[in-house]
Amino acid sequence: MTSQAGKPGETGADALCDTLLANDVDVCFANPGTSEMHFVAALDRKQQMRCVLGLFEGVVTGAADGYARMAGKPAATLLHTGPGLANALANMHNARRAHTPMVNVVGDHASYHLPYDAPLTSDIESLARPMSGFVRRIGSAADVSPATAEAIAAASRAPGAVTTLILPADHAWGAAPQVAPAKAQLRAPALPDPDRVSAVAKALKNGKKTVIVMSGTALRAGALATAQGIADATGATLKAQQSNGRMERGAGRVAVDRVPYPVDQAIAALKGFEQIVLVGAKWPVIFFGYPGKPSSPVPEGCETFVLADPSDDLPAALDALASEVGAGTAKPVAAALPDPATGALNAQSLAVAIGRHLPEDAIVCDEAVTTGRDFFRFTAGSAAHDWLQVTGGAIGGGLPLATGAAIACPGRKVVNLQADGSAMYTNQALWTMAREKLDVCVVIFANRKYQILLGELKGVGAGEPGLNASRMLNLDDPAIDFVKLAESMGVEAARADTAEGFADLFARAMKTEGPFLIEALI
Question: With a threshold of 0.70, does the pTM exceed it?
């Protein structure tokens, strides 16, 4: 059986594009294949849609993640069948952990072709479901618009979700009804629960040592000032969740530390607390299980209170709590910038230079892994900026995050703090930065090893690395030349091996538009 394609402007693919645009989804990160060619043709007819090509599907979904975190609305992605989706899953996982709104469109074989089990046939639903909050296979060309609106609504519902639409090729080329595009039924975040607010207020007045752990929109500047006022009025301590989708930091804003990643540091950071209050945050857990160590850094017997879930209006919940405890809005304490560093290039001298030269309104996309763990204290006094993390632990998120953030926020400098090992997972993002002429400075921390895994080898009690272990954890034979790699993709690049050299390069990059990569040899 075969099916006839509808005329241009009347296809299911047109309906999909029209519905995305009618719901203010106007950027599509794409890596298409044969099944998606009618969608590609429809995009040619919809010039309002910005189409951004990624040379690997993990770049596509990672860029959609960075875009949505900064734009506050979903982007669309276009992926090719099950294998294309499989390549995209790691950064969909990171986006899911960040509560990022995203609408993935996965093309599939024509519905009548599926029984023939062609080479790219796969169970797309089963691949998508673990990384998606919503999965729907489109049933016909007439179903395209309502299905798309439903996916946008699910993606946009607080706190945000990754959604996946499966579009069979015959429904993309089939004739669609000529009706107005469906509108997504959006829903506001839930209002604060008065009972929770009262319970937390009572707990904060009982004299017990309390830590308030926050994430999501509680880490925006206004909400942080409210939270600090609550802490000042009650003696509570503020912490951010270990990994967060977006945090507003820098001069004029309240400085809050994260729960540390290393198990011993995390346990020490929460030692002695008798109560923990969660504001849009998960109960703290250790990244991995370690022999003889707990799975959570929270002390035994520490009582847990939930002020608000991630789907709630977190700033409103903090406002309600502040009113209940009689707190005012705190004025941030000015943090001094560190003195310039000289000599060897290491984690501290890198952090000092970055902290001193970050421009106003910069966006930092952090996949520094081990090198960047202590960067917060050196950047608390930097010009006001946003800090985005790779939230799910799936490496390869940093470069794409920076790509998407730059597309969402033209006019703002984007800085990607990037470990060298994880950069190789999605280095194709450099090409997209060059093609789109994005204002991104990539800093590669080139220690030429998987330093995090060398630490974890000891952390799990597996001992010192021998010959085979070293060969799996070192990247120096041969060493990757990131300057040549960047230049081959159209990105200007330079190398630094001293604190002074790096500071000069970074300061210049902050004042120069366009993509630039610094390979920092540490």
Answer: yes
